[in-house]
């Protein structure tokens, strides 16, 4: 029986566990990446593990999220990450060099290699045939130290692409179509593998748009084959040596098959407030808009920007619209500057932003009250833009640019003929903003620079057998990490300071949660289905840990957040019987007993609700390794124990 591409790469990297569906496997990690909003914590954890130099083939630290420096905090973090990277063998991509995923694709990604990153959009690397997975910072720290990364052996979905995209229809529309069909939880436990005749017609950046936003399906990752198109891209990046051809065997067996005829794809938008709330432009109609933002790790490649420039050429942004553009990397921005496209954008009235995440993570450009904002990004969760009642629609760069001119949501197919946007034969290569690490022999000479906002990892303790607690919060389905640990320009600077950032935990849902949880001492959060979808931020586990949360009891979890809870030593519990969700209310007194034996033996955990005089049966399915982590009080304690 032939193998899928995913199986080939996973098989060649498996170092622990059995290669069987649903079982946990440990894979060797070739490359890691971090960004600054999760990086400070990841490097504090790496320091705590105590391994002097990274053991990966390549580790890169990027600065791209917290680039708005309205106080000393972010700049201090940049200096900390830069110095820690230099000392421990990590390449450092300086602020201004671009968004981690875009730069990694350009300069470091290698087909067939494994990559984990402390950012949920790490699967962007699947665009050049990597197994690239988003993970919590602590998992990345362990991988930098040479430890394996553990995933559940996934189900593999084949997306069979046929045909070719019509003019002005985009890769973004393809992933929106997949989201429309599969939903934001449809990818949990799965890898999405793109195959078929249609693959050839998609460039590497287009493929990367699709794998990037596979994160919104909840998928473990997404991957494209490595073919002649990949080779051309790497050659244009002067990295042809990194290329190897890779694809699934013809007789590979998949768990699920989805057929997509590219010629039937039409321009679409994900409507507020979920990436799977997808409608065609004609279904939405001629909506008046207030803002357009172009950029983010989903859509900020040179090819995207050239399409935008073509549409803006000789035009003026509509008087009622604010248009901002953030090219994804210094390479892209530099090429736009040299070929004149930047001048076209400036001339049209676009507000040019630095090459960074910017508005995508609420770092500026929050829309006006109730403002309708079209964005080429990947997430439109409520409040993420920084404006609570902002209405965010996710669209392609083509839709974004044509709408910015018209002032209303516009189908780019009305623009008429589309020229061919060819990939360049050569990109401008200048890695002067990537600092290599020092030689190992010089590492003692490098001083790690710590600002006053950088506080140590919160305290953990081994699991207790009996835990008395109270219900500190009850929330509904589809709670995102943006609800649990909001981002934005005001809160992001606190990412290195868990005591301070925890004061904002869940305040989107309930302003009193932090003080209530702290007062209760030990507590449980109760939630619905797909709890913790979205980002990889481990702060969404570390802040509850700091506030005394001992368990999260929900109908179901999103993958990365569940792993982060385990890493933090918080019990991830699910209801045996979902109807029991109704039998716990805020403030109820709860007792979890016989925890150690139940965890060890995999038996149900019984929570006694003293207030309601009722017993609730909960499931805590953990791999043998995860059991040990939870018993030790988290991955950091477990890793130290192991050493
Ligand atoms: C995001 O898109 O939400 C982020 C910001 O990139 C996060 C990481 C973070 O919270 O720092 C992600 O996707 O993992
Ligand atoms: Fe940055 Fe947005 Fe991409 Fe997250 S999704 S890495 S915030 S550009």
Would you give an account of this structure?
It is a single chain. It contains 21 helices and 27 strands. It has 643 residues and is of the alpha/beta class. The relative contact order is 0.12. The chain has a seven-stranded mixed beta barrel with strand order 21-22-23-24-27-26-25, surrounded by four helices. Strands 7-6-3-4-5-20 form a six-stranded mixed sheet. It is globular and about 70 Å long. The two termini are 40 Å apart. Alpha-methylisocitric acid binds next to helix 2.
Notable features of this structure?
7-stranded mixed barrel; alpha/beta; binds iron/sulfur cluster; 18% strand; globular; 643 residues; binds alpha-methylisocitric acid; single chain
What does the secondary structure layout of this molecule look like, with pairings?
Blueprint: H1 5-13, E1 14-16, E2 24-27, E3 31-34, H2 36-49, E4 58-62, H3 72-88, E5 91-93, H4 100-107, E6 114-117, E7 131-134, H5 137-144, E8 149-152, E9 155-162, H6 171-182, E10 190-195, H7 204-212, E11 221-223, H8 228-236, E12 256-261, E13 268-270, E14 278-280, H9 281-284, E15 291-294, H10 302-312, E16 322-325, H11 330-339, H12 341-348, E17 351-352, E18 372-375, E19 391-394, H13 397-406, E20 434-435, E21 467-474, H14 481-484, H15 498-501, H16 513-520, E22 523-526, H17 539-546, E23 549-554, H18 559-568, E24 571-575, E25 589-592, H19 595-601, E26 605-609, E27 614-619, H20 624-632, H21 635-642
Parallel strand pairs: 3-4, 3-6, 4-5, 6-7, 9-10, 9-12, 10-11, 15-16, 15-18, 16-17, 18-19, 21-22, 22-23, 23-24
Antiparallel strand pairs: 1-2, 2-8, 5-20, 13-14, 21-25, 24-27, 25-26, 26-27
Helix pairs in contact: 2-3, 2-5, 6-7, 10-12, 10-13, 17-18, 20-21
């Amino acid at each position: 029986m032939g193998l899928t591409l995913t199986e080939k790469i996973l098989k060649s990297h498996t170092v622990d566990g059995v290669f069987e569906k649903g079982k946990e496997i440990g894979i060797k990690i070739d490359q890691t990446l971090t960004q600054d909003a999760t990086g400070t914590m990841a490097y504090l954890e790496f320091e705590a593990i105590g391994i002097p130099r990274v053991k990966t083939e390549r580790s890169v630290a990027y600065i791209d999220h917290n680039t708005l420096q309205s106080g000393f905090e972010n700049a201090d973090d940049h200096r900390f990450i830069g110095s820690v990277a230099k000392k421990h063998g990590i390449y450092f991509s300086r602020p201004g060099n671009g968004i981690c995923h875009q730069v990694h694709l350009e300069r470091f990604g290698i087909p067939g290699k494994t990559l984990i990153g402390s950012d949920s959009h790490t699967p962007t690397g699947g665009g050049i045939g990597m197994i690239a997975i988003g993970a919590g910072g602590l998992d990345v720290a362990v991988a930098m130290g040479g430890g394996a990364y553990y995933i559940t052996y996934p189900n593999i979905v084949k997306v069979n692409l046929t045909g070719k995209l019509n003019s002005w229809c985009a890769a973004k529309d393809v992933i929106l179509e997949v989201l429309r069909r599969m939903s934001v939880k449809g990818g949990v436990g799965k890898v999405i593998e793109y195959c078929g005749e249609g693959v050839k017609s998609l460039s590497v950046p287009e493929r990367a748009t699709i794998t990037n936003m596979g994160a919104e399906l909840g998928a473990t990752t997404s991957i494209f084959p490595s073919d002649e198109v990949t080779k051309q891209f790497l050659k244009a990046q002067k990295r042809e040596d990194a290329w190897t051809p890779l694809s699934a065997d013809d007789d590979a067996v998949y768990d699920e098959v989805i057929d997509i005829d590219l010629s039937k794809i039409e321009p679409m938008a994900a409507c507020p407030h979920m990436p799977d709330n997808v409608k065609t432009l004609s279904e939405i109609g001629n909506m008046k808009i207030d803002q357009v933002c172009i950029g983010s790790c989903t859509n900020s490649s040179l090819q995207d920007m050239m399409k935008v420039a073509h549409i803006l050429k000789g035009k003026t942004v509509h008087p009622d619209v604010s248009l901002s553009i953030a090219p994804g990397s210094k390479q892209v921005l530099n090429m736009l500057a040299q070929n004149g496209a930047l001048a076209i954008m400036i001339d049209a009235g676009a507000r040019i932003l630095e090459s960074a995440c910017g508005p995508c993570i609420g770092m500026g450009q929050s829309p006006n009250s109730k403002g309708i904002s079209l964005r080429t990004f990947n997430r439109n969760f409520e409040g993420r833009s920084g404006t609570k009642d902002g209405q965010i629609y996710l669209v392609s760069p083509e839709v974004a640019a044509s709408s910015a001119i018209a002032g209303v949501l516009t189908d780019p197919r009305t623009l008429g003929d589309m020229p061919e946007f060819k990939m360049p034969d050569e990109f401008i290569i200048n890695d002067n903003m990537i600092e290599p690490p020092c030689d190992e022999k010089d590492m003692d000479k490098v001083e790690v620079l710590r600002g006053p906002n950088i506080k140590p990892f919160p305290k953990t303790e081994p699991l207790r057998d009996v835990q008395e607690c109270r219900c500190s919060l009850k929330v509904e389905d589809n709670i995102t990490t943006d609800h649990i640990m909001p981002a934005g320009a005001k809160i992001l600077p606190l990412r290195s300071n868990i005591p301070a950032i925890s004061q904002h935990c869940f305040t989107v849902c309930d302003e009193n949660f932090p003080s209530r949880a702290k007062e209760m001492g030990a507590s449980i959060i109760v939630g619905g289905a797909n709890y913790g979808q979205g980002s990889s931020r481990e702060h969404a586990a570390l802040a509850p840990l700091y506030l005394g949360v001992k368990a999260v009891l929900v109908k179901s979890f999103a993958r990365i957040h569940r792993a982060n809870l385990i890493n933090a030593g918080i019990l991830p519990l699910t209801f045996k019987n979902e109807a029991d969700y109704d039998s716990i209310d805020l403030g109820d007194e709860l007792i979890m007993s016989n925890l150690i034996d139940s965890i060890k033996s995999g038996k149900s955990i019984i929570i006694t609700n003293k207030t309601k005089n009722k017993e609730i049966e909960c499931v805590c399915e953990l791999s043998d390794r995860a059991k040990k982590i939870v018993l030790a009080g988290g991955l950091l304690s477990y890793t130290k124990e192991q050493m």
